[in-house]
Structures are given as structure tokens and as C-alpha cells.
Please model this.
Amino acid sequence: MKEVLFKILENKKIAKDIYEMKLSGDTSDITRPGQFIDLKLDGFYLRRPISVCDLEGDQLTIIYKILGNGTEAMTEYPAGKTVPALSGLGNGYDTALSGSHPLLIGGGVGIPPLYLLARELRKEDKKVSVILGFNVEDEIFYLEEFKKLGCEVAVTTVDGSFGIQGFVTNAIPDEYSFFYTCGPEPMLKAVYKATKTSGQFSFEARMGCGFGACMGCSCKTLTGYKRICVDGPVMMKEEILWED
Amino acid sequence: MGRLSVNLCGIELDNPVIPASGTFGFGYQFVKFYDINCLGTFSFKGTTKEARYGNPLPRIAECEAGMLNSVGLQNPGVDEVISKEIPRMLKCFKKPVMSNVSGFSIDEYVYVCEKLDTVDAIGWHEVNISCPNVHGGGMSFGTDPKMAAEVTKAVKAVTKKPIIMKLSPNAPDIVAVAKACEDAGADGISLINTILGMRINLRNKKPILANTMGGFSGPAIFPIALRMVYQVAKAVNIPVIGMGGVSKADDVIEMMMAGATAVQVGAANVVDPLACKKIIDDLPAALDKYRINDIKDIVGGAFNG
Model:
């Protein structure tokens, strides 16, 4: 992990409340899909942790959703502006666990880290199935991008306006070797129950420091207390302890 | 001894900058960012008798120029602090460190201080009688002068190292608490711990923090902290460590002019892991700017103003 000054190359809306930001800078500390960067925004005290969606040389892509005043302010950031960030945070997904036919399950703004993961798995020539869950059709993003990687993609929408009607759990295939997931907590809990293999979950949290010092995002697991920012955000299915 | 050095209860510090407890872990988390031996010292994570998980998530909420936390003294307990955390810290920090002790009873403060007093690496004990995030202990000892004196007396009786009592701004009369600690034998006072605060999520009408309330820190509280440091430092004859919203070299100088012998930096470490290094690097130029030769000369400089 290190402090990096990123320069914005592009920042555009790609779906309802969803923006894609392309950055250039020192990406050398990002070594695994599922890691995140922690952006310092003008006029906001705490940094904003956002997962890395794609990475190519010194360029990286993040996708964020307007969830509050900070992310709303980010939508106004022009190309050319520099943004300080802590880079290479979190443990990330482990592709070595995937087996021959991994299943990737993403919900809404939990989808972005799965894109870089899918790219890595396709590079390793794995058969990759992807389920992308949204509420309604106008929230859909990155469907074509996943298809272009050669993934088999299913889309679910809660209102049935596109793809399979219902939740991501309605689209889980019979056969897969391992799964990776990221999304809102109710979705993660449903995935936990509906899956039959081992898998990795990525969690989000309101963080303080983002690098393991403040204990602001420490959660209980079956293998002890874990800080979502450094011991996570990715955890094994077998260690998760749902608290309610 | 350089122009930044200060003496804190008989131990020389290379500079007055001290990361505050709870924002710096046991130091090693920061080694990836800089060599922490540039610090005056640091106050390690608040330690209790037993291991504590602390409060449920979310524990962090953002504020205008600051943040709330309701961590609730998460720590592995004094035995594991001594057997695992301090040895790991010693690999990267070679100066005397400040312990930070919390408790839910006088017996617990005594138990933890007595154990930590045997650790060579510790130079001072900072006794936290001001945590707003726990019930039945912590802050309740720091709001009442009589109870604060009892804790001070009890831990002094079992320790050889200097005792610094960390006070709460949530006390009705913080000067009275400070004087009670001094009378009971405290070697120093540190203040302020966080101010009790709250935020509500407008989207779901619920408090952001799972614990409803939490401790407010960051630049927004600096003037309040400064005022309390000034009042306490004027009233006592033992060293005072000033903290609360300190984020830059100028803030360090201002805190010292208000009477602080040394200064702790808390929330700034959370938003910028390099904050303390930057402050230390900036201090010589800041002293030049205000025509100060030696930082020791400014302690309490505002008293006659």
C-alpha cells in the first residue's frame, strides 16, 4: 500500500447513478482483483474506499454509485484533475481457488471488482459464469464488457424489466467449481445459503483509515476478529459469521 | 538535544509529536508509509484486562471537518498485548513508548498498569479515564474529580513509571478533574479525549453509528481542545499533553503556546497515514516563520496574553 496521486482520464455516467472513472498513476501496489483504493475528496474528511474494476499498466478503472454527498461530488470531477489516494489496499480475491468453472455473482455496485477477477480467470483459461443482479433495467452496466471477456453472463432484475426476473440466486447454475461474490449484504446472505461449493465474499464497511490501524471496520468471524480493510475485504465462506 | 526536543516527565523526546492512542495501533501498521522512529513517541492502542471486541459496525461516521468513532476499546487484552503486540512493535520502534490503559473498575486499571509497568519498552502510562464509547467504566471515572483521584492514587501505588491521566472534555469541570489527579500524584495530564457526538442517516432515519453515539474528533474540535488545554495547563504544575484536532505544524505550536509540553495527533493519522511525519518535517520551518528558536520556549507562552 502507498499514497499515490492519480490523474483522472475520464469520468462518465454509465447507468442510473453509476459512474465509471478512469485514472492514471502508480498502480504497482495493486496485485490482486478485489483490492481497493481510498480516495481523498476535496472538502470531505474521510477517504472513500472504492474497489478496482480494471487495471492495465498505469491505468485503472473504478466504478462508483452516488450514495451520498461524497460520491455525488465525485461526479463533477473533470478529466485532468488529480486525486490523492491510498493504493493497493485489502487482500483481494484468490484466483488459485477457482477450479475449472468458477461462478461470479455480483449485485449492483458490487459488480466492479468481479470484472478484473473475470479477466484474470479468463486469462487462466477458466470457464467463467457470471450472474449480474440489478433492481431495474436502467441500472445495468458492464454486461457487454463481461461478454467480451468470453464469460457466460446471466442478468437478473428484481422487477423483471431485463433478463431473469428476481434475485441473483434465481440464476445460480447447477454446475460450478467455486464462487466469488460481491454485493449488498442481504444479497451476500442469500448467496451464502443458495451456494453449494466454497466461495469468497467481498464485504464493504464504513472505514476509518483503510489500512488496519483504527479498528473502525473490525468484524467478528469464525476465525477471530477481522478488519475488513486489511484482513478483508475478501473472506472465505467458511469463516463468515452473520451477526443477526 | 535539538530545537524540537522536549522533556516529558523526565524522558527526553526528540520532538513533541505523539500519535494518539487508538489511531496508531501498535505502530507497525505505519511502517509501510514511513520510519516511525522520527516520532517523539506514540501512545499505543488502549489496553484492558481482558480481550474486547468493542461495538458493532458501523463504528465510523464522517462529519464536517472531523469524524465520529464508536470503536469501543477493541484490543486483545493486556497479556496478548505484552506477548504479541509489544514484541512486534519493538521490531520497528526503538524509543520509549507510551502505554494506554483502560478499565471498568479501579481494580482493572491497577491490574493492567501493574502488568505493563514490568515492560522495559514503556516509558509512561497514559491512563484513559475518558473513553466515551464504553459503559460502566471509561469516561465515568474521568467526569468526577473524586473518582479520577481514586484511579490515579491506585495506579500510582503499583507503578514506577510516570502516570499521565487522560481526561474527558465531557466532564462538567475538567479543571477540577485535572487538579484532583495532580493532587493524587499524577505525573502528567493529557487532554482532550473525543467529544460525544452523533450523526443520523437521512436516507433511513437511523443513527449512522450502530452504537448511536460516538466520539467526535478532527480539526473541528481544535478550538475546544485548545481552550481546555489552556485552562488545565494554567491550573496545574505537572506537564500537560494537548490533543484534539491537531493536524499541522501550526496546531502543534498553538497547543504548546496554550500550555502543552507535548502534543498528540489523533484523527489526522486516520485520514493520512503520513500526517505525523509531515507535521514533524514541517515544524522547523514553522518555528522559523514565527521567530521561535527553541520549541520548549513557547510552552504556556499565551498565559500572560
The domain at 6-54+73-195+217-298 of chain B is CATH 3.20.20.70 (TIM Barrel). Chain B has one domain: 6-54+73-195+217-298. Residues 275-289 of chain B form the longest helix (15 residues). The first strand of chain B starts at residue 6 and ends at 8.
